[in-house]
């Protein structure tokens, strides 16, 4: 009788850092447990002193530092993944059993985990030591790490709140928000479907001391706030409504926002070849109308691509994600977050819907 298969682990690298051979760091989550692994040069100063050595005799930790340093400046996605995977596999080979034991002890990662547990997690810190080819992980204190993480705003009063907040909308503490579906997680940021009371909504939040100011989440909150004010004039505008804010209960700093949940399908995942020409034209017109309305009110969609278009249960098109950024493959890079960039992306989306062939590729 075959033994049961070992369950797959949920592992995601959220941040790497490197320099000029003076050390490196990798941060990842292991079944939602945040882990930081620091690597120092074998001689304590720089990896450059061992570059001349044969790979078989060079200290592994020096090679890992150089690999992470290359990855930190790499612009090729495939090469980046290869470099990161090389280092991650070394860490998992020697530390997987440690991480599994730690996960079982983390009672905070239960079925009804809250947003607070993800924004302000307790990190595990390790140092990778490999003066030869054999490697080991040593548990360390946060102050010994190359990067110290998860600084709760209550301990850092240096932030300046510069977000425009609508006082009529409710604020919730992160411990009042229950995660139902986690879509994206950074070192201390979360994008997820959540439950507040009995209501399902969409949430973006950040636990960094600087909050949302200057971030993509901050831009999206600003735009949703402006749209919230003008949407009363246009009730049929298919852009999710801003519903409230996430704030730190002690500092009252805004950590994130809640917006309307739009059930449906992402346009990039729809086989448009199976959709009637009339329906494709309907979507094309709706998308164009919303973008034109935004531009008339001095707003830019920014991250314009099929990944950010939802077709709801009534077969109507909605635009989501106003965090800005470069939509590679849908606009020229120098047109990022401009009216012209929106129009260029719209033209490509309209062409795909008009042709109606195959599945729109996700970029």
TrEMBL record:
Entry GO MF terms: ATP binding; protein kinase activity
Domain Protein kinase: 163-363
Name of this protein: Protein kinase domain-containing protein
């Amino acid at each position: 009788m075959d033994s049961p298969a070992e369950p797959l682990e949920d592992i995601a690298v959220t941040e790497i850092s490197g320099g000029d051979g003076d050390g490196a760091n990798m941060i990842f989550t292991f079944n939602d447990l945040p882990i930081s692994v620091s690597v120092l040069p074998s001689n304590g100063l720089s990896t450059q002193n061992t570059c001349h050595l044969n790979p078989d005799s060079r200290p592994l930790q020096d090679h890992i530092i150089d690999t992470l340093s290359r990855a930190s400046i790499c612009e090729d996605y495939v090469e980046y993944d290869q470099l990161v995977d090389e280092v991650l596999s070394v860490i998992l080979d020697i530390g997987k059993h440690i991480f599994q034991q730690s996960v079982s002890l983390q009672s905070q990662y239960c079925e009804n985990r809250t947003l607070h547990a993800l924004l302000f997690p307790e990190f595990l810190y390790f140092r990778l030591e490999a003066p030869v080819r054999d490697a080991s992980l040593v548990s360390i204190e946060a102050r010994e790490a190359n990067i110290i993480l998860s600084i709760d705003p209550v301990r850092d009063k240096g932030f300046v709140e510069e977000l425009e907040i609508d006082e009529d909308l409710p604020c919730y503490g992160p411990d009042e928000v229950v995660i139902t579906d986690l879509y994206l997680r950074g070192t201390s940021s979360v994008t997820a479907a959540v439950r507040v009371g009995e209501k399902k909504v969409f949430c973006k939040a950040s636990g960094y001391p600087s909050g949302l100011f200057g971030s993509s989440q901050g831009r999206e909150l600003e735009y949703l706030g402006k749209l919230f004010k003008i949407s009363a004039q246009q009730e049929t505008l298919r852009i999710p409504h801003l519903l409230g804010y996430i704030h730190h209960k002690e500092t009252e700093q805004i950590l994130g926002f809640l917006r309307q949940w739009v059930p449906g399908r992402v346009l990039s995942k729809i086989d448009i070849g199976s959709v009637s020409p009339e329906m494709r034209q309907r979507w094309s017109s709706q998308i164009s109308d919303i973008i034109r309305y935004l531009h008339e009110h001095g707003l830019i969609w920014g991250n314009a691509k099929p990944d950010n278009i939802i077709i709801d249960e009534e077969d109507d098109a909605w635009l989501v994600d106003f965090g800005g950024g470069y939509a590679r493959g849908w606009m020229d890079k120098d047109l990022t977050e401009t009216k012209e960039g929106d129009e260029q992306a719209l033209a490509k989306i309209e062409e795909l819907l008009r042709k109606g062939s195959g599945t729109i590729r996700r970029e």
